[in-house]
Amino acid sequence: MITCERLTKTFQSVTAIQDLSITIPDGCIFGLLGPNGAGKTTTMRMLSCLIQPTSGKAHIDSYEIGNKEDAQHIRKMIGLLPEVPGLYETLGAYKNLDFYAQLYGVPKKQREESIQTTLTNLDLWDRRDEPVGGFSKGMKQKIAIARALIHDPKYIFLDEPTASLDPMAAKVVREYILELKKKGNTILINTHNLSEAERICDSVALVKNRIVKVGNPKDLAKGLFTRTINITIKKIPSTLLKDIESFSLVSQAHVQGNQLILNVKNPEEDNPQIITWLLKQGLQIQFISEEEHSLEDVYLKLIEEAGQ
Amino acid sequence: MIRWKNAWIVMRKDLAEFKKQKFVIGSIVAMPIFLGVVLPLVMFVPMVTMVPLDRPWDINGLLEIGNLPDDATIPWTNKTIQNGSFDSTILNHTKIQNTSLTHCIIDSCILENTTIQDSTIQKSVLHDSILINVTVIRAEGASLDGRNILAISSDLRFIKTKPSEIDQVLPMMFNMILMIFIIVPATLPTIIATYSIVGEKNNRSLEPLLATPTTDGELLTGKIFSSFVPSMGATYLAFTLGVVLLDIVLIPKVGYPILPNLTWILSMLLLAPTACLMSVLACVLVSSKVSDVRAAQQLGGFVIMPVVLLMLGVLAGFIFLSPVMIFIFAGLYGALDVGLFLFAKAIFNREAILTKWS
Prior knowledge:
By secondary structure, chain A is an alpha/beta fold. Chain A contains ten helices and 14 strands. Chain B is elongated and about 85 Å long.
């Protein structure tokens, strides 16, 4: 389990992240969402023992972030994929992976088997000695992900894992991340890709130099927006909008084509009354649905509010 | 506590990357070869081929002397001659010690296990003689003909003979060439070390590397040796080639392989590595302040100033590289190395590298 309590990092006069308090349970995929410069990478670097927190506490299992003796243990438990693959471009994929496997102390036989399996899965075994500088961005990213996993870490930190991948490759990576979760790995993802976070993260934290909101991606919108009902009517009379606005249950209404869009406070209780009234007016209702707010809507609203 | 295995892994990776940089390898090898092999040959070949050189054992003596002097005495056989003064003497099976030999003819002799010590051998003839295990110690020798010596064993040694003109010139020239072999390992790391560290920064490969369980000291040590090993390797290669070729050029005149002497060996074992290490460490410090390989290399040029100062001292004649002087300078450089290592270790930490090295 990863826990952060009021974790803060300040670079001279600039506060990268302040009072970050989150808990990431084992086997969870946790997403850090935020604009550029929000402190996501700084947080990941602190948790990877690359930089020291200015204040606050963080623990990975029983090891403390910022404690020099614990740093070695923590680094062994973590696989980090930075924002940029950072491969050794003149070396082959095999040597890139072998170098890291050696540094992580993976026994020779195990690392040979592991590298062969990984490169075979990536369809790169026949090209294992070719300099990776000649590979596509997506292929480099895959090798970098393989590098982060070469020592079979318990915790995996991925900074924009699908940023440079085409949709097909990104899908493969997402599926792989979900597989890792099934295996019991705990995954922390920094991402701008909100639909990706929505699809794979169990929990997300919106950050902008501090935590804006934490929660399940699907629950984040709750209480944030007035709920909107879309009612599709076969033929909307011109007087309908005026009549419906006098309805006390409706806070806002407008017509778009043959859709009547209503903002209501409590659709579970208000909808039956509204529908009954519409039917009494002799209108033919074709469809009725509630408009869902995506994580992107939540993100933009919250980040905008945080900026203000 | 440094785990050397990790430093070794980092070094091997850097060397594997280095091997792929053909132009860098080319420059690393070409510079010492040119400065340490081509340049000395250009200096020495005309000297030995065009300038007549006086040597302790001069081949021009015999014909000038001609026949035996009239007062040549009966050959001394199986005698030990000590504290004697001999003139126009024929010596046979003779141990010569504390003896001044002038106008002597050593004719049809076998000088076996003979020591010519503190003696003067001038205008003498070694005619049809066989010299086996002969040692000439502090003996003057001019115009002593060697052309008719039937054989000289490989153990014919000259120890501290009185310096002739070439003896006075050679050490100065050797000092200058020796400085090349010290300046080269101090210069080469500015190419490799700056690439090894700044290149890693430019490549954005430092972050995953720093996330591994290696310590800062292990990474630093690996980086230092990955620059140190090829620099010294190229230097030793050029040194070996240079010495062999210089000996080939000089043996016809000097009579024996004059290099490497003690000074050169000590320089290569003590002075060159400490100078190289100083340069590597200074490049690490420079790398902490710049993010461009070219800027690092330019600045790296300044960090070899202590070696340049030594070179200027040698060229100006203020400093003569003797074994004692080498120990002094190697000690100075070694102390600087320790200081630089501690300073580099202090600034070579993960946070500084990731956030301040820009």
